[in-house]
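INFO batch 0412 | record 1 of 1 | parsing
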Amino acid sequence: MNKYYIETFGCQMNVHESEKLAGLMEERGLVLAPAASEADVIIFNTCCIRDTAEKKIEGYIGELKALKRSNPDKILAVTGCMTQQVGRAEALKKRFPFIDIILGTANQYDISEKIDELLSLKKRRAQIDISFCDSPRVREDVPVCRTSFPNAWVNIMYGCNNFCTYCIVPYVRGRERSRAKSDILGEIRSLTDKGYAEITLLGQNVDSYGSDFKDGTNFYKLLKDISEIDGKFRVRFMTSHPKDISEEVIKIIAETPNFCKNVHLPVQAGSDAVLKAMNRKYTRSRYLELIDLIRKYMPDCGITTDVMVGFPGETDADFEDTVDLIERVRFQNAFTFVYSPRAGTPAALMEQVAPEVKKERITRLVALQNRISDEISSEYLNKTEEILVEDAPRDGVLVGRTDSGRLVSFHGEKSLIGSFVNVRITSNKASALFGERVENG
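INFO prediction complete | emitting tokens
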């Protein structure tokens, strides 16, 4: 075996986990293939947050049947959240008998051992391990092959204790487990020493970091220690939960130059009745108080959110409450999506909203947010922003983000990737900004 290929679906957590799977492959001496057809080991790192994600994944797996038939020695592994659902591994194996390895979220870093076991057999037999416990151990021994320079993902915790009625995450990722603060700080120092210019702290609910410790460690204290690390770099984090984010966390973000003035605070719905049915543990008024608090300390903070439409029982009046909240808050950007029933969650058993109603509501919501995003974008015109150059999508064009999280395109040399530059904003289109580099701010 010489080459591997990883197809990743889902959230930033999955992206970072795929970096670790890549690290394990490279530890074996394999190198990244440009396409699945050229790889000896093909790994699908899956998501199950919505039904559309699962259908897409199954479509991709099905496309590999001919590839496996032409070269049976190729190894196909499927791991991640989708496989961890009750009965899902067995269903996958039945539908796609050419899958060689199926691993759950707690076992995915055993992939190298599973490959060895598979290769040791005279006749291949699928290796399946979805054994699961509520609190899998936190592993610090997994190599990482990072793919997102100058950005780096850093897990601070795993799992979730919230049990929102629509969400499958606690069932497939287990309870909250925090990493030791010393390990997190050591990883960040190592990354900044290597030139990484933006660190994104990851957790299903970063604000509950340390709640499983007995020594008083919490998210604020972690941020305080990170704020004392020397160097020019940015820090972002996701995701915060409105029931847990504190004023001291908001204050330290405002007071620390390295911390981006950009908060992702999922609201999900603007109706108290829907929020209660979702088990979100905050009210509409509490959420609006948090927005006011953020803007008190950071008037120009880029606030983003997640909004769901068509949750079971959502009435026209409930939806209008959501529309009103979006109009009031004026989010910089909102990730809007239609509720998708997830087997095993309480909401899947509730009375569902008709598909045509969901479609009408999401169309209206997207149009509303696009208008607001465009209006906010126009406020950047003629301003000079410090941009971290992240990529060069084509010759002579660079892209990067403002401190507040807005994506900016401008002309420049590829050698600037990883650098901070000043860009004057000259035009905009919806949530995208365009500008020209200036030597002096």
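INFO post-check: The two ends are 52 Å apart (CA to CA).
INFO record closed
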